Amino acid sequence: MSLRENPVVVRALRFLGVGGFCFIVTLAVNYGLKFTVLEAHPTTAFLIANTVATVVSYVLSRQYTFQDRNDAYRKRIQFIGFFVVSGLGIIINSAPLYVSRWVFGLHTPNISFLAQETADFISGPVIGTAIAMVFRWWALHKFVFPEDAKAEEKVELAA
User: Fold this and answer.
1) Do the record's keywords include Transmembrane helix (predicted)?
2) In the chain, where does DSSP find H-type helix?
């Protein structure tokens, strides 16, 4: 079986594609809020941006990434599980930004505006997203869209 035929590889690539799109949504909403109505509250802007991207991610994950594990009878469980996992992911994603700003003091007037924005970008969208992405992949794969027990039996019998 080639990598393209491996369902885990296909699912992982789709997960990364959805994540990339949602990353762009997060940045657009975050900077839109951060430089307008939530200028004094960058962590709140980032939390809102992640929440918006989570809703987009749910729809795309359910319909595209995990479409082969999209059981109609589990829809409510998947919905609740997805948002619990994503809520934890948002907290994980926002924690490095919070630490950067309010623990390390990397904000104006302590540092320049450019240094502040660089620290915000590295801590939130880069470090936070990377950590949250690993957590979300594991948790979604394990708890929200688990392998069907019957499909596992078929794979074991075929081997």
Assistant:
1) yes
2) 7-34, 42-60, 75-98, 113-121, 129-139, 149-158
pLDDT digits (tens, 9 = 90+) for 90-108: 899 889 999 999 999 999 9
Q: What is the pLDDT of residue 155?
A: 45
Predicted TM-score (pTM) above 0.90: no
Is the peptide bond preceding residue 96 cis, with omega within 30 degrees of 0?
Answer: no
Is residue 154 predicted with pLDDT exceeding 60?
Answer: no
Residue 136 near residue 89, CB atoms below 8 Å: yes
Instruction: Give me the domain span that covers residue 30.
Output: 3-158
How far is 66 from 141, CA to CA, in rounded Å?
9
Q: Distances in Å between the alpha carbon of 64 and those of 10, 17, 50?
A: 11, 10, 20
Of the candidates 38, 2, 146, 154, which has an alpha carbon nearest to the alpha carbon of residue 85? 146
Which 3 state secondary structure label does DSSP give 148? Answer: coil
